[in-house]
Amino acid sequence: MTTRELLIQATYLVASVLFILGLRSLTAPATARRGMQQAAVGMLLAIVGTLLHEQIVDFRFILLGLALGSAIGYPLGMFVPMTAMPQRIAISHMFGALAATLVGISEFYNAGNGGAVGHARMAALGFEVLFGALTVTGSFIAFGKLQELLPGRPLTFKGQNAANGVLFLVTVALFVWLVVEPATPWAFYLMAALAFAVGVSLVVPIGGADMPVVLSLLNSYAGLASSATGFAIGNNVLIIAGALDGASGFILSIAMSKAMNRSFGNVLFGAFGAPVESA
Amino acid sequence: MTILSLYVFVLAGFVGYQVITRVPTLLHTPLMSATNAISGISLVGSIVAAGARESTVATVLGTVAVTCATINVVGGFLITDRMLKMFHTREKPKAEERK
């Protein structure tokens, strides 16, 4: 292991510990703010560690992206009124998930459109793009409902469950096919497109009042997508932060629906396969 | 390598679960906002994609991804901070009672 590699891994390790400590502190009102700061420092360390990576040869575009993102993110964070908080989280979420999706697509493209991808790596990439893409559109619909750009009531139509079920099954079938046969670009891009549609179909039937629960669940999906990225590129901090996010988002959405006196399954009704609801 | 990653994933997921159970209702929204900011960790993957110069497509997608993830991270942490600042003073006595 070179010194550089050692340094990267050390920053990642510290970042992961800070994420865990931060989350823990965030569960008590007295320490919540400190927890958030710990998590933020962890994020900064993870970024600095990544910049040391020897794979990175060109910093111009990274800096451009960081500058642009900060310029857009700062007003989003500072000037949005407190009452518009849930929809702001939704839109910020959409951006995070979009990043994971795009990284998945570029990885697939770089590996000769799937030609040089092994089965295990394809599973990770497919998972990443699948969960990333459905989180993008899901968050966007949630944003629309909260901002009242879309009607807040559940949108339903005849045969909706059947249509959603077919859509979902086709998407999963494409995913399975890709894992078996990674070098099928059309299946990959079709799966990505369908995953965007799945995100819409998941959130459209859910009422505006239940959106916070949905947001938290989408948060968990985005975490899983990040974790999958970590598997695909062999990066532990991604796996750890993603898994933390995935698990905590899931638990949080259950806790939230309980606090609202709604059963978790009920909130997701129409969203097929709510896996565990008796937690 | 993959098996080791799986270990890391499962254990980290378990930690996430343990850490979050028993969070007071009051902190649901800030916690959601903070985990949202942490999900911006996809920035790490984006940076590699944007800087590795493997192909033009990857660089373009990577740059867009870095931008998006940065929005998520910067906006996410700022908003969480604002939220927590808002009820920090009010909540302090309650927290001490709990101890």
TrEMBL record, chain A:
Keyword annotations of the record: Cell inner membrane, Cell membrane, Membrane, NAD, NADP, Translocase, Transmembrane, Transmembrane helix
Its EC number(s): 7.1.1.1
Compartment(s): Cell inner membrane
Transmembrane segments annotated in the record for this chain: 6-23, 59-77, 89-110, 122-142, 162-180, 186-206, 239-256
The keyword NAD appears for this protein: yes
Enzyme superclass (EC): translocase
Catalytic activity from the UniProt record: NAD(+) + NADPH + H(+)(in) = NADH + NADP(+) + H(+)(out)
NADP transhydrogenase beta-like domain mapped to chain residues: 9-279
UniProt topology in membrane: Multi-pass membrane protein
Domain of life of the native organism: Bacteria
Protein's job: The transhydrogenation between NADH and NADP is coupled to respiration and ATP hydrolysis and functions as a proton pump across the membrane.
Family: Belongs to the PNT beta subunit family.
Record-given protein name: NAD(P) transhydrogenase subunit beta
Organism: Anaeromyxobacter paludicola
Name of the encoding gene: pntB
Shown residues within the full chain: 1 to 279 of 463
UniProtKB/TrEMBL annotation, chain B:
All copies of domain NAD(P) transhydrogenase alpha subunit C-terminal, residue ranges: 6-88
Domain of life: Bacteria
Keywords: Cell inner membrane, Cell membrane, Membrane, NAD, NADP, Translocase, Transmembrane, Transmembrane helix
Reactions that this protein is recorded to catalyse: NAD(+) + NADPH + H(+)(in) = NADH + NADP(+) + H(+)(out)
Residues that span the membrane, as ranges: 6-27, 34-52, 58-80
Membrane topology: Multi-pass membrane protein
EC number: 7.1.1.1
Localisation per UniProt entry: Cell inner membrane
Cell membrane listed as a keyword: yes
Main localization of the protein described in the UniProt heading: membrane
PANTHER family: NAD(P) TRANSHYDROGENASE, PROTON-TRANSLOCATING NAD(P)(+) TRANSHYDROGENASE
Role played: The transhydrogenation between NADH and NADP is coupled to respiration and ATP hydrolysis and functions as a proton pump across the membrane.
UniProt name for this protein: proton-translocating NAD(P)(+) transhydrogenase
Lineage, broadest ranks: Bacteria, Pseudomonadati, Myxococcota, Myxococcia, Myxococcales
